[in-house]
Design brief:
- This protein is α/β, with parallel strands linked by helices.
- It folds into 2 domains: about 140 residues, Rossmann fold (3-Layer(aba) Sandwich), CATH 3.40.50; about 180 residues, 3-Layer(aba) Sandwich (Rossmann fold), CATH 3.40.50.
- It has 13 helices and 14 strands.
- The strands form 3 sheets. A 7-stranded parallel beta sheet has the order 10-9-8-11-12-13-14.
- Helix 2 packs parallel to helix 13.
- Bound molecules: 2-keto-D-gluconic acid.
- The site of 2-keto-D-gluconic acid has 11 residues, from loops.
- 2-keto-D-gluconic acid binds next to loops.
C-alpha cells in the first residue's frame, strides 16, 4: 500500500470525469469523488491519486461499471456521501474520507459493517462554525440583517428602525453540547448569556444546567441553538411543540443541519409569531430555501457558510488528505468516525 502511495507525479490536466497525470494509472490508488471539493484539494489529491469525478459524471452508473473494481477510497462531503448501495457495489473499497465534520450524508453503518473506514474533519472547523453561531445569536435579536435591509432600502430617511432585543442576561439553550456547542457556550458566556443544554450523552457535573428533553430546554430558553448531529436519529427533533415551548419572545439558531428542524413547522411558527425570529445557515432540502422564509424580515438566512473561510477549508482539505495518506501509507487514520453499530 505504502509503495503505491509514495512516488510524486505531475498534474497535467483534467478530462471530463477523470484526472490524468504523467504516471501510469496502474501504480496509483483510485478514488471516487462523490461531492464537489475545492480546487486546491482536487489538485493536491490528483498529484497522488487517480480521481474519478462521479459527482459530475454524465453517466455515473457506467463509471462504476468501468472503474468500480479499482476504487479503494471515496471522497465525500457534508451534503453528499455514498449510500449503502454504492458502498456495496465497490468491492475493493477501504476508506471514505469526508470533507466535513458531519457524516450524515454517508451511510456510515453500511460502510463500517463491511470494515470500510470512515473519516471526517472535526476540530479544525469548530472555531469558525462557533463564530457564525455566535454572530447569529447577536444578529437575530438585534435585528441586524433587517436593519441593513432597512437602510439600503432608503427607509431611514422616513424614520427610525423598530427596537431590537438585548442579548445580555438572556438564557441560551444549547441542543447538543458537543465540540461546537461547547465553543459557542464559551463565546456566549462572554456576552453575558446564561447557558443550559440538552444532550443525549451524560456530561457529569457541569455548571450548565441540563434539561431532560429538547422541549424542556426550549421552555427554559430565550434562544435555542441547534448544535447536535444530523441524520435519521435527530430528524425533526425541533418540532412544533419545541417551537411553542420556545415561545413568542424566543429565537431559534441553526448552523448544524436543516433536517433537525421540522421546517414546515418552523415556517408556520415564524409566520404566526409563535416564535420571535430565527437565524439559519442550513435548510432541509438546501440549496432550496422555502419562499416563505425568504420573504420574512425576522429571519437571518445564510447559504451554509459556517465553515467557509480560506483557513478552515484549507485545514479541512489537509485533514482529508492526511487521513488518506495515513491509510494508504499503512498507518492508522487521524480522525475516524466512531463506530455506529
Ligand atoms: C461543509 C459541513 O459546508 O462540516 C460539515 O459537516 O456541513 C460543512 O463544513 C460541507 O461539508 C462541505 O462539503
Amino acid at each position: 500500500m505504502g509503495e503505491e502511495f509514495c512516488g510524486r507525479v505531475l498534474f497535467s490536466g483534467k478530462l471530463k470525469g477523470l484526472y490524468r497525470r504523467e504516471r501510469s494509472h496502474e501504480t496509483m490508488t483510485d478514488l471516487l469523488q462523490v461531492t464537489p471539493l475545492p480546487p486546491f484539494l482536487v489538485e493536491r489529491l490528483s498529484r497522488e491519486f487517480t480521481l474519478h469525478d462521479y459527482f459530475s459524471a454524465d453517466d455515473p452508473d457506467r463509471m462504476i461499471e468501468e472503474v468500480g473494481t479499482r476504487i479503494r477510497g471515496i471522497l465525500a462531503g457534508g451534503m453528499k456521501g455514498p449510500n449503502a448501495n454504492l458502498i456495496n457495489r465497490l468491492e475493493n473499497l477501504e476508506i471514505i474520507a469526508s470533507f466535513s465534520v458531519g457524516y450524515d450524508a454517508t451511510d456510515v453503518a453500511a460502510a463500517q459493517a463491511r470494515g470500510v473506514i470512515v473519516t471526517h474533519t472535526p476540530e479544525v472547523l469548530t472555531g469558525d462554525v462557533a463564530d457564525l453561531a455566535m454572530t447569529f445569536i447577536l444578529m437575530a435579536p438585534r435585528r441586524i440583517a433587517e436593519s441593513e435591509r432597512f437602510l439600503r432600502a432608503g427607509k431611514w430617511l422616513a424614520g427610525r428602525m423598530d427596537l431590537g432585543t438585548t442579548v445580555r442576561g438572556k438564557r441560551l439553550g444549547i441542543l447538543g453540547l458537543g465540540r461546537i456547542g461547547w465553543a459557542v457556550a464559551r463565546r456566549a458566556e462572554v456576552f453575558g448569556l446564561h447557558i443550559a443544554y440538552h444532550d443525549i450523552k451524560p456530561m457529569g457535573d457541569l455548571t450548565y444546567r441540563s434539561y431532560p428533553t429538547p422541549h424542556d430546554l426550549a421552555a427554559a430558553s430565550d434562544m435555542l441553538l441547534v448544535a447536535c448531529e444530523g441524520g435519521e436519529a435527530t430528524r425533526g427533533l425541533v418540532d412544533a411543540g419545541v417551537l411553542d415551548a420556545l415561545g413568542p419572545q424566543g429565537f431559534l439558531i441553526n448552523a448544524a443541519r436543516g433536517t433537525i428542524i421540522d421546517q414546515p413547522a418552523l415556517v408556520a411558527a415564524l409566520g404566526s409569531g409563535r416564535i420571535a425570529g430565527a437565524a439559519l445557515d442550513v435548510f432541509d432540502g438546501e440549496p432550496a430555501v422555502p419562499e416563505e422564509l425568504l420573504a420574512m424580515e425576522n429571519v437571518v438566512l445564510t447559504p451554509h457558510i459556517a465553515s467557509s473561510t480560506h483557513e478552515t477549508r484549507r485545514a479541512m482539505g489537509d485533514l482529508v488528505f492526511d487521513n488518506l495518506a495515513a491509510h494508504f501509507g499503512g498507518k492508522p487514520v487521524l480522525t475516524p468516525v466512531p463506530p455506529q453499530i
